[in-house]
Amino acid sequence: MNKIIYMDAAASSLKSGAVINVQRDFLLHKYANSGRGIYALATNVDNLVYESRKYIADFINADVKQIVFTSGTTDSMNRIVQIIQNTIKLKNPTVVVSDLDHHSARMPWEYQNQIGKCKICVCPLTNDLGIDRTKIPMADIMVITAMSNVTGIAQDVSGIIKQARKKNPNVITIVDAAQYVVHENIDIKKFDCDFLCFSAHKIGGDTGLGVMFIKEPDKYNTDKFGGGMVQKILDKKWILNLAPEKFEAGTLPLTQIISLPTAIENLQKSKLKTQKIISFMFNELKQIKKINMLSSNKSKIISFTIHGMAPIDFGALLGANNICVRVGNMCASWIHKYLNIDGSIRLSCGFWNTMAEAKYVIKKIKEILK
To answer: What is the pTM of this model?
Structure first.
């Protein structure tokens, strides 16, 4: 087997032929800017953007006006900080985070803490590396990682939010669903969060596109200004368009937006097959004595360490066999510090992977560890 085996879906998904075809057709035959023209080509693009927005809203059980397009989860998480600060004047708020957080979820608030604009409080984890709902601190703002990109374990988001609201009914809840959306269904009404975000490229769409859900978009002020979000400029003030457009200054990533529904359709069809492959690999790897599993049998991705071998060395050996995996801290330093390890090895699958590939990977891992 000489072909490349790509098992780094948690970093970024490969793109299906269907997604590529939608993008190609748009670029060749339908392209124009959106929200700018009254000619037929431009109004058709407006309709295509609306249809994608509606599809994504239905996908997570939200309303169309609650769906804001960004450039990715990192962009969304950073913008949420500014949107909250531009609207709600909280004096030195307490922001609750956890050691499950990706850098993009926690670092923007850690920076605000460094410059004296908030206090950080870390929520304890349970023995099975979940957010401990019995020990959620009092919070003005709470960041919730719905699924760690290291453990791959889905968190009880609605239960966590309910517990946080028992401590403070006005707590602002922010959900990082970048990994969760790949494997689990999102019902935003059950979550009852204030903000939620994920990236297109994790679910088979293109890079440069993120989705930011805002529960009450009319309540919040925008953090960016530019073309497409202004209704009228007056002498000393302006009137902005209604949500979601008021949060979308500048030209949107149109090709990515229009092809995202096709990516989601492909993702939904492949979930069961992907999980079967992950379950098979987990059961095989946990029997290898030199491997220390960080994931559990409930995980949607597999992370582990190897006794006596650095993750980067193991990754290089797999790479020499055309097997692509992620090694390092996964942009999630805190969980690695919590586990007292420098880094880990991660296997993650997508619609393109086969059981034959999984068996080959396990075979090569066993050969390397002999």
So the answer is: 0.96
